[in-house]
Design goal:
The chain is an alpha+beta fold. About 35% of the residues lie in helices and about 25% in strands. The longest helix is centred in the N-terminal third of the chain and has 19 residues.
Length: about 400
């Protein structure tokens, strides 16, 4: 039996964190290509540092002349992202930073395995996870770490809290009793701010009411230790303070360390790349297993080979919380969804420009949106799974 009484910690970072700036730009480039052509191929990486953004990787459209014309839009896409995040610092400003574009045509050797037979864009293993400790069926530490930063971004952008700046990090340590979260033991929040004279206590006075809005009230107790801007001053932030790179926050993007991760990043990758699409499918299936009441906790692993459409394996672990046999659940999840790359893209409608919004505050635990955003968070397979069993 797994431990029932323990402490567990997860962290999140804001949209203004240097790595998240890069994730945002990479996903914005992807969205622009998918808006141009739903079957566009994109593998976009971004690097950012003081006054500089470098974009590289491989892309493809069916019309090569149109692709050449499209390349001229890349710099403005990056600047629009930086402006929306809120960077107008002297050494990192959306209008004055240098943007270098080194995107090039996708390798024909990759295309030959992905194009005609719609095989997987690469080999790899992907994991999905769900647990019933929050209404969104997410691990609580990462879920509420995201919610804190998302709320602070909202009040920063609205002008309600003008002393806040884009770069921030949160971290929650929760105490579990009987396998359920009951208390925040440690709360860490570091946020960029406007003036070196502002103290940690002053920053806490600004952020604490918003934190209390989003964290369950009975989890914040007299025993909760608060660490707000524990180093004191945090004025220099974003890529001016620390270089950023696409794909470095994969645990923040998924389950905060509470579940397994296959290792592949998401941002900047079109849905032919199973690093992204199959991870979404695995989350979708795991969430529906838990939503159906088949288990309180569920991990699903999928594996693929480049150029091969069918998954090589499907593995389900319910961590001792399921009534049905796990092998029966494995058969059921493979029955209710076509797990080829084409099947995943069609079922979840992934060939649409819905990715820029995933680049901060987690890819999972979000509300499904009317235009198909976060479609993998739907629980519309519940009845089909029950019937398959």
């Amino acid at each position: 039996m797994s431990r029932q009484n323990y402490l567990f910690t997860s962290e999140s970072v804001s949209e203004g964190h240097p790595d998240k700036v890069c994730d945002r730009i990479s996903d914005a480039v992807l969205d622009a290509f998918l808006a141009e052509e739903p079957m566009a191929r994109v593998g976009c990486e971004t690097f950012a540092t003081s006054g500089l953004v470098v974009i590289g990787g491989e892309v493809g459209l069916s019309d090569q002349e149109r692709l050449k014309d499209f390349m001229g839009r890349i710099s403005q896409i990056a600047r629009d992202c930086i402006r929306d995040i809120g960077y107008e610092q002297e050494k990192f400003h959306w209008n004055t930073c240098h943007v270098l574009n080194f995107l090039h045509e996708q390798s024909a050797h990759i295309w030959q395995g992905v194009g005609g037979n719609q095989g997987a864009g690469d080999q790899g293993i992907m994991f999905g996870y769900a647990v019933d400790e929050t209404p969104e069926l997410m691990p609580a530490p990462i879920h509420y770490s995201h919610k804190i930063l998302k709320r602070l971004a909202e009040v920063r952008k609205s002008g309600a809290e003008p002393i806040l700046r884009p770069d921030s990090k949160s971290q929650l340590t929760l105490r579990y009793e009987g396998g359920r979260p009951v208390e925040v033991v440690q709360l860490v929040l570091s946020t960029q701010h406007t003036d070196e004279s502002q103290t940690s206590d002053e920053i806490r006075a600004v952020v604490e009411p918003y934190i209390r809005e989003v964290v369950p009230a009975d989890w914040l107790t007299e025993n909760t230790e608060w660490h707000v801007n524990p180093t004191g001053t945090f004025v220099i932030g974003g890529p001016d303070g620390d270089a950023g790179l696409t794909g470095r926050k994969i645990i923040v993007d998924t389950y905060g360390g509470a579940a397994l991760h296959g290792g592949g990043a998401f941002s900047g990758k079109d849905p032919s790349k199973v690093d992204r699409s199959a991870a979404y499918a695995a989350r979708y299936l795991a969430k529906n297993v838990v939503a159906a009441g088949l288990a309180r906790r569920c991990t699903i692993q999928l594996s693929y080979a480049i150029g091969v459409a069918r998954p090589l394996s499907v593995y389900v672990d319910t961590h001792g919380t399921a009534e049905p046999d796990e092998e029966a659940i494995e058969r059921a999840v493979a029955e209710v969804m076509d797990l080829t790359p084409t099947g995943i893209r069609e079922h979840l409608q992934l060939n649409r420009p819905i990715y820029q919004r995933t680049s901060a505050y987690g890819h999972f635990g979000r509300e499904p949106e009317a235009d198909g955003g976060f479609s993998w968070e739907r629980t519309d397979l519940v009845e089909a799974l029950k019937k398959a069993l």
